Amino acid sequence: MNIAKEKENKVHGTESFPCSYYNHNPEQGQLEVKMHWHLENEIVHLIDGQFTVEINGERKVYEKGYLFINRDELHSISSNNGASEDAVIFRMEMLKFWEQTELQLKVIQPLVKGELKFSKFISEEKKEFHYIDKYYKNIVNCHNGLKTKNDGACGKVSTSQGNQLEIIGNLIAILGILMNNQLLIKADNHLVDKRIYNIKNAFTFIEKNYDMPISVGAIASEVGMNEQYFSRVFKEIVGIPPMEYVNIYRIKNAKHLLSSTNKTVTEIALECGFHNMGNFIRNFKKETKVTPKEYRKRS
Fold first, then answer.
1. 3-class secondary structure, 87
2. Residues near 109 by beta carbon (within 8 Å), at least 6 away in sequence
3. CA distance 71 to 92
4. Which keywords appear in this protein's UniProt record, sorted alphabetically (predicted)?
C-alpha cells in the first residue's frame, strides 16, 4: 500500500478554510485523545496540568507550553483530571496564496511536503513562548467570535472572511518566530519506525471498511504483517488490541449519526458495522456509559 495515497479523508474546518479550534477544560474530566493521525498540522496549547504525549512511538510527559504536531505524525494525548488545553488544527496548504517567491519555495512548500517540520515543544520558560502566545491567542479570539460554526468534528471554524485573514496572518507570524529561532527543522523521515507506517495504514483500512465485517487477519494482511506480530505491535503502539480500536471507531461514528440524523438505532448499528444489536448496545455503553437511545436524548 502506498502511504502517500492512503490519507485520512476527514477535514478539520471546512474544504474552503481547513482550520479548526478545539478546547478541553477541567469540567470535561480527564482528557484522552486516542492514537490517530491527520494531514493537518496542529498547535496545542498545554494550559494547565500534566500531559502524556506520544508521537510516532516516542512518549514524553509535558506541562505548560506549546506542543507542535506535524502532519502525518501518529499521536495521542492524555492528561490527569483538572488539566486544560486547546488546539488549532490547520492545513499548511491554506498559507499558499503568494506567487512563487523564494519564501514560498524555501519555507511554505517544504512545510506542505513534510520536508520541514516544527520542533516538538516550547515550554513556558522559553522566550519564544511569549511571542507565540500573543499570536496564538489572536487565533483563538477569531474562533470565539460571532461568525463561527461547528466543523462536524467537535471543533469551531470561523466563517468570517476578515477573521480568516487574521488567522492566516497570525499563523504566518508564528512560522516567522519559529524560523527566526531555528525551530523549523529539516525532516529525516528515515528515522521513523517502519511499524508507524504500518499502523497508519491499518487506521486507513479501518476507516474505509468499518461498516463491513473486519478481522485482525484482514487488517494484518492489508499492511503486510503476520497476524500475531501485527496484534502485538498494534497494542504496543496504540495501547489497545486491534478489534477494540475497530469498535471504538465504530462507536465514534455511531455517536455522530445519533446526534446528527434521524436514522433508527438499528440502521445506525448496521451502518457502523454492527450486525448484532446486543453487541452494538454493549459496546456503546462501554464507551459512553449510556444506551444509544439515552445518548440521542442528551445530544
1. strand
2. 96
3. 9
4. DNA-binding, Transcription, Transcription regulation
pTM: 0.79
Q: What is the DSSP letter of 92?
A: G
Q: What is the C-alpha to C-alpha distance for residues 281 and 293, in angstroms, rounded to an integer? A: 10
Residues 264 and 155 reside in one and the same domain? no
Q: Contact, 226 vs 220, CB < 8 A?
A: yes
Domain extent, residue 135, equals: 12-189
Helix (H) or strand (E) holding 84: strand 84-90
> In the chain, how long is the greatest CA-to-CA distance?
60
- The answer to whether the beta carbons of residues 95 and 164 sit under 8 Å apart is no
By C-alpha distance, which of 83, 87, 89, 88 is closest to 25? Answer: 83
- The pLDDT score that the predictor gives to residue 9 is 47
Nearest-10 crossing angle of helices 242-260, 194-209? 40
Domain shared by 175 and 214, yes or no: no
Instruction: Check which CATH number belongs to the domain holding 127 and give it.
Output: 2.60.120.280
In whole angstroms, what is the distance from residue 280 CA to residue 267 CA? Answer: 11
Quote the CA–CA distance of 71 and 117 in Å, as a whole number.
Answer: 9
Residue 270 has pLDDT above 70, yes or no: yes
pLDDT, residue 28, reads 83
What is the C-alpha to C-alpha distance for residues 171 and 193, in angstroms, rounded to an integer? 30
